[in-house]
Write a structure and sequence with these properties.
The complex is a heterodimer of chains A (107) and B (117).
Chain A: E1 4-7, E2 10-13, E3 19-25, E4 33-38, E5 45-49, E6 53-54, E7 62-67, E8 70-75, E9 84-90, E10 97-98, E11 102-106
Parallel strand pairs in A: 2-11
Antiparallel strand pairs in A: 1-3, 3-8, 4-5, 4-9, 5-6, 7-8, 9-10, 9-11
Chain B: E1 3-7, E2 11-12, E3 18-25, E4 33-40, E5 44-51, E6 57-59, E7 67-72, E8 77-82, E9 91-99, E10 103-107, E11 111-115
Chain lengths: 107, 117
């Protein structure tokens, strides 16, 4: 199984900050990497699919990059409504596997 | 709009069988893969398996022969059945929609399941 190592586990940042979250795969996942946002009590929401494709309706301050084994989610200017847990999913090979999550809070 | 809603028991006894129903709206089960994902305190998020748009299934070997996923397209429902439950199976169970080349795009709210006597 492909292991997904997500960092950091916890992140505190201020409104307007640039925030980056990373996922590292144990082998090449060929850009089959999605990012999700989960707010307390809500269903997870797809932000980015296949590394760098912004899901419809998601603000352009969210972006994704990466290749091979290393992938990054960037929030260009943190907003209060971005407080949530973020996690990645690799769907390159089954079983699909998830990162451990990053809890993002406002400083 | 696209909606997925899981319904199931809140409490299941060890060794018993878990049954959860996912009812979907605004899309056809014959056009998407439908998966089950769970989140447990011990292992975080785990992909359990899916039923393809054509009706075939694939499971995470982690769940070996305990898991069964099926569907009723006429009722827009997908089903999870997992037997021989253990306390470690306690967690939130999600159904989710997706495609093989794009992963998961929509999730249900999830249903909390506690395995305890």
């Amino acid at each position: 199984d492909i292991q997904m190592t997500q960092s950091p586990s916890f992140l505190s940042a201020s409104v307007g900050d640039r925030v980056t979250i990373n996922c590292k795969a144990s082998q090449n996942i060929n850009k089959y990497l999605n990012w999700y946002q989960q707010k307390l009590g809500e269903a997870p929401k797809l932000l980015i699919y296949n590394t760098n494709n912004l899901q419809t309706g998601i603000p352009s301050r969210f972006s994704g990059s990466g290749s091979g084994t290393d992938y990054t989610l960037t929030i260009s200017s943190l907003q209060p409504e971005d407080v949530a847990t973020y996690f990645c999913l690799q769907h390159s090979s089954r079983p699909w596997t998830f990162g451990g999550g990053t809890k993002l809070e406002l400083k | 709009q696209v909606q997925l809603k899981e319904t199931g028991p809140g409490l299941v006894q060890p060794t018993q069988t878990l049954s959860i129903t996912c009812t979907v709206s605004d899309f056809s089960l014959t056009s998407y893969y439908m998966q089950w994902v769970r989140q447990t305190p011990g292992k975080g998020l785990e992909w359990m398996g899916f039923i393809r748009s054509g009706g075939s299934t694939e499971y995470n070997s982690e769940f070996k022969s305990r898991l069964s996923i099926s569907r009723d397209t006429s009722k827009n429902q997908v089903f999870l059945k997992m037997n021989s439950l253990k306390t470690e199976d306690t967690g939130v169970y999600y159904c989710a929609r997706g495609r093989s080349t794009e992963g998961i795009d929509y999730w249900g709210q999830g249903v909390m399941v506690t395995v305890s006597s």
